[in-house]
Amino acid sequence: MGMTITEKLLAARAEVESVQPGQLLIVKIDVVLGTDATAPLAIQVFRRMGARKLFNPDQVVLVHDHYVPARDVAAAEAARAVRVFAQEQGIRNHYELNRGGVCHLLLPEEGLVVPGDVVIGADSHTCTYGAFGAFAAGVGSTDMAAAWALGETWLRVPESIKIEFVGKLQPWVGGKDMALRLIGDVGLEGARYKAVEFCGTAVEQLPISHRVTLCNMAVEAGAKNGVVAADESALAWIRPRAKRNLRLYRSDPDASYAAVRTYDVSSLAPQVACPPAPNNVKPVDAIEKIRVDQVVVGSCTNGMIDDLRVAATFLKGNKVSTAVRTIVVPGTQAVYRQAVEEGLVATFLDAGAIVTSPGCGPCIGGHMGVLADGEVAVATIARNFQGRMGHPGSKVYLASPAVAAASALTGVITDPRVVKH
Amino acid sequence: MDFKFRGRALKFGHNIDAEQILPSRYTLSARQEEVVPHVMSGADPHIGIRLKKGDIIVAGTNFGCGSALEIVPLALKWAGVAAVIAESFSRVFYRNAINIGFPILEGTGVYAGIGEGDMVEIDLERGLIRSITKMRNFPTAPFPDFMQTLMHVGGLEEYVRQRLKRASTAT
Ligand code: SF4
After folding, report:
1. A364 lines ligand 1 (CB under 6 A)
2. CB distance A149–B23 less than 8 Å?
3. Residues A228 and A282 in one domain
4. Has residue A180 been placed in a domain?
5. What CATH number does residue A169 fall under?
């Protein structure tokens, strides 16, 4: 019987002919990712394991993105522990804030993750790399420490769910809306333990930035990984950046799936996930007047140059509502630079927004835009569980850059299709 | 790691996400005394008076969804929670809990069948969940072999430590 792309990716790195869902594998890892949020604990575990050397320092990547620039003394101490470890172990792929950004956008941009890879990362949104034809799953710090020592990890082969999107998207509707609609329909555990494979003519039309959003948010439905087979349009983005050889896989026509869902996106409206969880999804036009205190455009979910371009289209020549603190967070230094060169940063500043340094920014409620009790934010981030961006009494609405930017202009949650720009 | 416990049930709902177990603004701290007061505070602001050492958390489906941070199960362990039993767990929470040797068990019907304050008994090795108060047993999902091995040595850290030790004495 045929195999899915996820099964093929895992079989190749487990060095076996074929695999089946439920099978436990020991898999060789191409890239192990850690961040300033998870590496400090892993370093302690690594030492307690009695490990002295990484299995291969060139396959280990460390990114300072969650709490940079250091938000407090604890963050500064944690960052130093990571820095010392990187030096001691000779890790070249150690990204401090001067060459960094949010990890899940940075690694593909640097060509460190390529199609065919098996990646584990101590961060739940590691599944983002599925957009580049890789198998990628989030793990914890102890898993990461073990992988640092051994270069392998244990993985259970997940069942796959096929999500097929067909039809033609309306203007200002895209990957974020598709992801939110799916999570709204299947729920927070609709894809628990499973691989979510995105395909169909509407996915083939999506630029890489929208595929990133789709795979990134698969974990919000409980998925182990999200994946899109790399096609020519993905390869056009990947090839000039790739630092290693690509291995291309696609699902066999007779591969088997635990479930198949098909969406016609032609009638899909922009979607918004209301508090208190990413599955509380409504079309934007069904949302009553909700006043907004803060808008955030950025994060690993929507922090690429395309996302900033969309926001800039709405803000160009306009002013954000005086009631809305508008924060734009370029995903990486390269995105930031390009945004400067294209004049997007000037557009944001003219409109009354601020542009912060690249990284996670306010996404994790740590700093750079923490919400007070009762405040409302529209954010392009991946999750809005209670207290995600600050006080437990604050509220976060998840949306695309188009909805976020339109809402910044009006001060209420707004359908981008009805805003003049 | 113990395999048999008895404790008082503390009930929570479905989809208890990482934010409810440990709000992300406290996740950077690696100090137990700073983390422990906030454990489960996202789910219940008055948890301080409710949670006692040795309690067993009982929840619905998808416990631990959201963040992959290992400090989430670790914080439960630090707070003295003896175990979590739920209808189901999020993938990463499950994996992290096994890796750090924190007892969890999936049981069918536990959410509806166990009440707040019930005395509950669990046996991880035999896969047993019993409400002593209600005199009722609940079927559990067995652990795959590899996870049983991990549980027996006390988690992934110890497993790797032993493996590295064997490798270094072999050379
Ligand atoms: S941007 Fe947000 S979701 Fe993405 S890695 Fe950072 S904290 Fe996590």
Report:
1. yes
2. no
3. no
4. yes
5. 3.30.499.10
Q: Residue B97 — φ and ψ, nearest 5°?
A: -60, -45
Verify that A204 and A128 share a domain, yes or no.
yes
* Tally of structural domains, chain B: 1
> Does residue A242 have its Cβ closer than 6 Å to ligand 1?
no
Shared domain for A71 and A211, answered yes or no, is yes
Q: In Å, what is the CA distance from A108 to each residue of A115, A199, A300, A302, A387?
A: 10, 20, 12, 14, 30
pLDDT digits (tens, 9 = 90+) for A300-359: 999 999 999 999 999 999 999 999 999 999 999 999 999 999 999 999 999 999 999 999
Give the domain extent around A176: 5-262
Ligand 1 centre from A286 Cα, in Å? Answer: 28
pLDDT digits (tens, 9 = 90+) for B17-43: 999 999 887 887 778 898 999 999 999
State the best of B31, B32, B91 to mutate against chain A, taking most chain A CBs within 10 Å.
B91
For the stretch A126-185, pLDDT in tens is 999 999 999 999 999 999 999 999 999 999 999 999 999 999 999 999 999 999 999 999
The complex scores an ipTM of 0.92
Looking at residue B117, which CATH number applies to its domain?
Answer: 3.20.19.10
Our answer on whether the CB atom of A102 is closer than 6 Å to any ligand 1 atom is yes
Q: Is A142 left (phi over 0), alpha (psi -120 to 50) or beta?
A: alpha
Count Cβ atoms within 10 A of the Cβ of residue B29 and give its class: 0-12 exposed, 13-18 middle, 19 or more buried. middle
